Amino acid sequence: MSVIFESRYPTHPDDVKRYDTEQLRQHFLVDNLMQPDQLVLCYTHYERVIVGSAVPVTGPVQLETVAALKADYFLQRRELGIINVGGSGVVEVDGQRYPLQNKEALYVGMGARQVSFYSDNAATPAKFYLNSAPAHHSYPTKHLTMDNCTVLQMGAQATSNERAIHQLMINDVVETCQLQMGLTVLKPGSVWNTMPAHQHDRRMEAYFYFDLAPEQGVCHFMGQPQQTRHIWVANEQAVVSPAWSIHSGCGTSNYAFIWGMAGENLDYHDMDKFPASAMR
């Protein structure tokens, strides 16, 4: 096992107006996730959130610290959210084992020293998607399923955005310092997510797209409402969204995605919405 680590610095919206396709992808797309037997970590300077993955195949993958964190262990000053998008597996936290089925989640509080990831079957390995944010308090580790979270039924077939939003890690489900995560599943025939588009100046967000067939894609929209840009995203890729950017997307088929947020407050509904008529 090895660790693949990169660090990305913030961008100013005035600069992004001049970015071409490759520059947009370089700064905002995370396209190296879900590599077998690898811990992949992308440290963003947006609220210092880390986007990552762990896919144990031939053996367990350890959540190791990296020199850039200046920490004795990964969660010394951080909290962690984990969602499994692959086969069944186990997350072991300081000797306690938590089985995670597909689309189940685990919140791990600050101070946990050893976190290891396992797959039940190497032929269909677990695929653990990770978000981590700085923390100021240690909250208990909690296992979250699609049955014990808040579910919002949103959209309609007529507007091609019928979807179920599973709020796995928000403040009325689990206590966290600032990290929030959830999973949205679009119904067959629906392709739009998060419409109307929105932004929240008080926190950043990352979108991880999955359950997307190899020949399909999602056009992820970003930028300021009057200066929108787009990035084409494939299966198991993520987009980092600054606080000044909208986030919305439209796929060539239905799909699922994980949203992760961190920032100033834990109010899920703290957002500024922009209907299609208001964007350029």
UniProtKB/TrEMBL annotation:
Top EC class for this record: isomerase
Catalysed reactions listed for this entry: 5-dehydro-4-deoxy-D-glucuronate = 3-deoxy-D-glycero-2,5-hexodiulosonate
Pfam families: KduI
Gene3D superfamilies: Jelly Rolls, pectin degrading enzyme 5-keto 4- deoxyuronate isomerase, domain 1
Cofactor(s), by name: Zn(2+)
Keywords for this protein: Isomerase, Metal-binding, Zinc
EC number annotated for this UniProt entry: 5.3.1.17
Pathway: Glycan metabolism; pectin degradation; 2-dehydro-3-deoxy-D-gluconate from pectin: step 4/5
Molecular function GO terms recorded: 4-deoxy-L-threo-5-hexosulose-uronate ketol-isomerase activity; zinc ion binding
Residue sites binding Zn(2+) per the record: H198, H200, E205, H247
InterPro entries registered for this protein in UniProt: KduI, KduI/IolB_isomerase, KduI_N, RmlC-like_jellyroll, RmlC_Cupin_sf
UniProt-listed GO biological process terms: D-galacturonate catabolic process; D-glucuronate catabolic process; pectin catabolic process
Cofactor remark: Binds 1 zinc ion per subunit.
Function: Catalyzes the isomerization of 5-dehydro-4-deoxy-D-glucuronate to 3-deoxy-D-glycero-2,5-hexodiulosonate.
Family per similarity comment: Belongs to the KduI family.
Protein name according to UniProt: 4-deoxy-L-threo-5-hexosulose-uronate ketol-isomerase
Upper classification of the organism: Bacteria, Pseudomonadati, Pseudomonadota, Gammaproteobacteria, Alteromonadales
Gene behind this protein: kduI
